[in-house]
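Notebook entry, structure prediction.
Reason for the run: the old model in the group folder had no record of what sequence produced it. Starting over properly, with the input documented here first.
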Amino acid sequence: MNDSSHTRIAILLTCFNRRELTLSCLRSLQDQRLPDNACLELVLVDDNSHDGTTEAVRSLWAQASIIRGDGNLYWCGGMRVAWQAAAKTNPGYFLLVNDDTTLLPHAVENLLSIVGPPSSGKIAVAPILDNKTKKLIYGGKYRKYVPVPVHGTPLPCDTFNANCALIPSYVYQRLGILHSAYTHSMGDYDYGFAARRAGFEIIQAGEPLGFCNENSESGSWRDPSLSRSTRLRLLQSPKGLPWREWLDYTRRNEGPLWPVKFVSPILRILLGK
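New structure, fully documented this time:
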């Protein structure tokens, strides 16, 4: 499976004021059934939480590398900081995980079996189910953001949600980390599309490997119950689709019809949808 006698997997995780969710995620990682020659090393960015997250993580995972943010990193920024720090130790793999996701005990082992050695050109993605409905909510995506189904065998994807994804060192050496253009969202999809353009494979596992709560549209720019002005303001917030970031994303990933994709969120809001 690996190129050496000892396989180090760097867990990349960023968090902000979600102590109990973060701890639940970390406990599920501690419970992983790993191959004998594999070990997990946690690199966590705490983006200035004030709910005791850092202290709780130190108590739970004494060997964790914890980096304190200034409160303005958001998801992509925090993951970039974690990735840069982890890369200095030259692990065989990088495991991107959302702190609201809990993994089944065989999740990492399953992803390792898909990727193969650190010199592999494959990215493995975990299908993630909703905690309540048990429906598939995150994982691999086809080109038009259609979810890749879970049918018992691993399936190829065009991009992915990084709720849980395993990236071997070879892919990192070719692609680097999440693009600096993105503050909060879009970075994982962008990385997936970049990987495919570079000739790498993205494979979704053939079975569900974790659970989390689906992000609600309520109170976001997608919420049709809000006024148009409120939705337009939220669209430009760090957790929305800030226009410069959205412009970069659509130009990089949406082909010759990128202008249509670029204006679609504004049209959706103006039409009250």
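Summary: The mean pLDDT is 96.
The old model has been moved to the deprecated folder.
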